[in-house]
Amino acid sequence: MFGAPSAEPAPATAEAPAQPAAAESVNANSPPPVASDSRDAVLGASASPMFTEEPAPADPLTIGGQLYMRLQSTAYDHTEPKRWGMSSPALIDVFFDARPNDRVRGFALGRMSYDPLLPSTQNSINAATLSGASGTAGTASISPLFGGATSAPRVLLDQMWLRFDLAHTLFVTAGRQHVRWGTARFWTPADFLHTRRRNPLDVFDARTGTTMVKLHLPIEDRNWNFYGYGVLENDAGRPDLSAPAGALRAEFVLGPMELGLGAYGRARSRAKFAADVSFGLGDVDFYGELALLDGRDIDRVRYAPDATLPQRPMLESLPPQAAQALALAYVQQEVDALYPVSRERGYRPQAVGGLSYSRKYHDNDTFTIGLEYFYNGFGYSDKAAYSGLLWPHSGTLKNPASFFYFGKHYAALFVTFPAPFKLDLHTFTFSTLGNLSDLTFISRLDYSYTLLTHLRLEAYGSLAYGARGGEFRFAIADLPGYSATALGIANQPPILTLGLGLRLAI
Fold first, then answer.
1. Predicted TM-score of the model (pTM)
2. Are 184 and 143 in contact (CB under 8 A)?
3. Which of 6, 33, 153, 495 is 20 to 30 Å from 480 by CA-CA measure?
4. Between 291 and 322, where is the model more confident?
């Protein structure tokens, strides 16, 4: 939602590959301490000491967060400027980080998001739309096709977890938390413990955490780490104890190389397997990750233009509610016929390999350049199938492909210049992502400038180019006799996106 792979907020507790064991009680990604009231002021004089005589730190509670505001516009092919897409997403994150002693930590992060330029009510299909009545192309994205995000503020719980140790040996983290597997920058096929794919062009990872229990057993003298996870959510990110899930992971430091191995399983689904590696050779850092998934757990679609379509219903004489329900049912039947769903047997790989090279070019100035390749064993060779992943079927698709995972072959390039020459408050990042299967590309320039202490200006511009109808030049295809434009969907491929944002660290 919030655009470049260059920076993510500190509070997320992503898994780092094969780190020394002793760090479990202190998170390197946590926000820096700030001045706070005494423990007695926070908890009440009568509350201390609590449960133990172990001395408390001077600042047991840190409160902070961020405020982010952005204005973004997208230009489309053959679309006049007044019909360009416009959005103004804003969010505020507030976290509480409690560390009453060195062996216990509690963390909570809440989020409120808001976009006043979204529609005030959810879109809905109606008889006039199905009958071919003319509509106005709006600025809605594809996601609220038959109802979705509105301008109403949304309040989310991103994280809330408690961490402690047992006999200084086993470390336990329970609650809603972030755990990321893998080493890649843009594509993360091994990221099994998040229920949604990360958009590689997001300014930061705006996904919410997953409710789970994590056990961490470190072997300090070898720098090995072993993890066990009990996941309390289903694949849709909702609490569900009827289909429990679990995972195991091991991390090893082998000379200059860090290796991670993992497995994930859920009731009534096949196991998933992952491996990742990173190492350095001279000034070049290499990394890779591999995921193996069973095709029986993934719904795929194909485009069948010669399919026999259901008969269009007569809606004009029906009451509005009945017409709307019948219209939606007809569209779903039409989609089922044009984009039939199937599954394939056996495991297929999703693999990423990449490298980055950093070089000093002036005094303390350094630039970094990187390359990444992604092979998607579940990707599509025919771009005509893409629309079948977005139009509503009569049943919910299981684990379908999402954006940035439509094709079979991808590649990416990035170059970043932090604080070049005398521009100590400026950072420039250029990146290009390409779907090599349908020959569409996105090139993007990100710029950030520290205006004041804790306040940063962020701007970016991205250009989409390549074959019309491909992933990065995509527009959802109309159904026979049924226009997506009439739903308020900008049904022309995007060309240019410009964004301007402000970020305040609290």
1. 0.83
2. no
3. 495
4. 291
Nearest to 34 by CA among 4, 58, 53: 58
E strand residue ranges, 344-493: 347-362, 365-376, 409-418, 426-435, 440-452, 455-466
Q: Within a domain: residue 3?
A: no
Asked whether the beta carbons of 500 and 446 are under 8 A apart, the reply is no
CA distances from 496 to 275, 336, 446 (A): 37, 33, 14
Could you give the CA distance from residue 106 to residue 178 in angstroms, rounded to a whole number? Answer: 14
Does residue 451 form part of some domain? yes
How many beta carbons lie within 10 A of that of residue 397, not counting itself? 17
* pLDDT 10s digits, 77-135: 988 888 888 889 999 999 999 999 999 999 999 999 999 887 776 655 544 444 443 33
CB atoms inside a 10 Å sphere around CB 395 = 10
Helical spans, DSSP H, in 44-199:
127-130
69 Cβ contact list (under 8 Å, min separation 6) = 88, 90, 501, 502
Q: Does residue 193 lie in a domain region? A: yes
Which residue range forms the structural domain that includes residue 308? 21-505
Structure tokens at 150: 């509105």
What does the pLDDT read at residue 337?
Answer: 95
- 251 lies in some domain: yes
Q: What is the DSSP string of 468-500?
A: TTSGGG--PPPBTTB-SGGGTB--S-EEEEEEE
The CA-atom distances, in angstroms, between 275 and each of 118, 124, 182, 193, 194 are 40, 43, 8, 14, 16
Tokens for 33, please give them.
Answer: 């301490």
Q: How many angstroms from the chain centroid is the CA of residue 211?
A: 16
Assign residue 312 the CATH number of its domain.
2.40.160.10
Rounded CA-CA distance 91/96 in Å is: 17
- Cα–Cα distance, 444 to 435 (Å, whole number): 15
Average pLDDT, integer, range 134-139: 31
Question: How many folded domains does the chain comprise?
Answer: 1
**CA–CA distance, 59 with 98 (Å, rounded to integer):** 9
Convert the pLDDT of each residue in 339-362 to its tens digit. 999 999 999 999 999 999 999 888
Contact partners, residue 319, CB within 8 Å, separation at least 6: none
- Show the tokens assigned to 221: 């003298």
Least Cα distance to 471 among 407, 417, 410 occurs for 407
Backbone angles phi, psi at 371, to 5 degrees: -130, 150
Backbone region of residue 439 per phi and psi (left: phi > 0; alpha: psi in -120 to 50; beta: other values): left
